[in-house]
Fold these 4 entries.
Entry 1:
Amino acid sequence: MATKEKTTSRQGSVSPAFANAIKSYLDGRAKNDELFAASYAKPGKNIDECCNYILQEVRASGRAGFADEEIYGMAVHYYDEDSIKDIKPLGAERVVVNHTIELSESEKEEMRQQALQDFKSEQLSALRKQEKEREEKERLAREARIKKQKEKAEKMKGTQLSLFDM
């Protein structure tokens, strides 16, 4: 029951999420099915080409939605059939992988706490930024007042004051 590690090139033809979903299924199948493990280890077969084969089959069918079992069946067929070779990438295809991740209650609570902590940190950072901006504005205003007072004092240094100047 030896399984061969498949390498993927990711030349933009297959999304990583789609390829990972297919690879994960095939790895599990090869682990539990010795006959398929032999097909899965065939030289010249790889995940990228398998995914491109699936996309070709989907496009040729004209349908927009498939059950997981149908897609996995196409993947198994690709590895089982020796006549399927040299599959070319189709280009930009949009594939939606509809697998969901179920979290335990403790994981959900941990995620809530992390989100709350992140929110608090963001708000605190924003408040600190506002405080620094306010302090900078006050400093500039204070410097401007001092400069104005110095200029006024310099101007008045050489002039004689009369009662009417006050």
Entry 2:
Amino acid sequence: MMQRPQIAIVDSNTLAVMGLKQLLLHVMPIMTVDTFGSFAELESNEPDKYVHYFVSIDILLNHRPFFAERRRKTIVLTLSVNDSSRISDFHSLCINQPEDQLVRSLLQLQQHAHAGGRNMPPMPQALSQQILTNREIEVMALIVQGLINKEIADRLNIGLSTVITHRKNIMDKLGFKSVSALTIYAVMHGYVDINKI
């Protein structure tokens, strides 16, 4: 059996690390995510086994030679979407933005680097099977595009209570609790174009 690819998050901000880890596990369920509070912790854990490093800007600046050699695998965590806070030659991700925008940024990074599953292992069978009915997929697509229940009912010409039932069934079948997780699922499975969210 093929081992799951591993991602490292290197940041001293424990809360930010925990949140990012959860989002990454939703975006890339086939990955294993390890977290490190310092560069020393990463260094003592076979750092070259990781396919990506999500690293805080201060740790990157203090250990630039290491990350410069691994530039294509490194994503710098910034606190501003402003271009001046980015470090040239590195991909960056602003972690100081609303959840839906952060999810969108992660999905864009993932699609840019791994379009069509490039450089990624195949999805486990259970994750690649169609779990939802065609109608549930239609409802899900409209949910992640930001429509409210009434608008979905009108668009699909079904009752409001039917939309609510579909919504509950979708969340139950997929085991999700948030629209962000649903958005990630919908984009990753090709049900919704990232430009429509």
Entry 3:
Amino acid sequence: MKKKQPPSAGAAPSSGMAAVWARLAPREQRALRWAMGVVVLACLWWGVGAPAWKTWQRAPQQHRVLDAQWQQVQTLAQQARQLQAQPRLSRDDRLRALETATQRLLGTNGKLQVSGDQATVTLQRASADGLANWLAEVRANARLTPAETRLTRDVAAAPPTANTPTAATTSRPAASGAIAPTWSGMILLSL
């Protein structure tokens, strides 16, 4: 077996990056240093600078959104304090306010049944606006909140087609107004 001879001290390295670098002219070495610096800076920008820049640009908008949310929370907290400060109503007063709101806002679409300390309101195709107003009034005047709710959105009737008599006898197309949603189900309140 032959042993490899170590290279002599005077011989130039035959391969490797150091050898390639040494063979370059000083001008080429400077250009490569600049290019590597640009690549390093670009990597730093994409990794660190760009995300921070985007966050900084979005900060004022996010600050406005958070301020609006904070104001809403403060308004709700103030309403809660006002409701808590109101004197407690008797059962009869709460029931009277509930009956009045049900008759006035839900009409024939809502039926009230009282059993012990519970009141059940059964809804049949109640309008969304009427239901929302009823819930707000019951909360404010009767000082009641639903203990249990089972509501389903009713499927709206299909608009008239060209084969229906009303559409065939009119010269203009049927109005394209949206049909307001209605709700059916039950709401249980604790008196």
Entry 4:
Amino acid sequence: MNSALFTNIFRFIMLLALQIIIFNNMNFLGYISPYPYILFLILYPVNGNKSGLLVASFILGLIMDMFSNSGGIHTAACIILAYYRPYLFRFSFGLSYEYQTIKLNDVLTPERFSFIVLAVLIHHFTLFVLEAFTISFFLDVLIRTILSTLFTIIICIIIIYLIKPNRR
């Protein structure tokens, strides 16, 4: 096995453990719920196995649903994010995606930031729409999506800079 696989397994376990132990217990003002576990899906290698990403996103969402008692909404949101991930790459990076020269855990550029924002926004909107599952709570869904997205992006950027490899 190579080091990229070990890195992804370690990232999967650590982000899931952080989410379950720390971030699942946070809920600010009833609207802000951080979900930085999706950083695993965001940082998954660009040239990695696409079906492996879908399986990993299913397992990630399933474990989150088991610990959150949420009935499958995390699984659905993770699979939707994993499915739309190549389209988000193509939208954010353009030609760089075609040559697969992208490293997300590097210096934050506007392209990387737009990819992270779109990925978190898609995940959170899907999650909160499935959680409410009625049109009468649409304003509540939008408020929760925007506020939770902002908070999750801040946490994700902090985590990216904490795990970023040093260049010397």
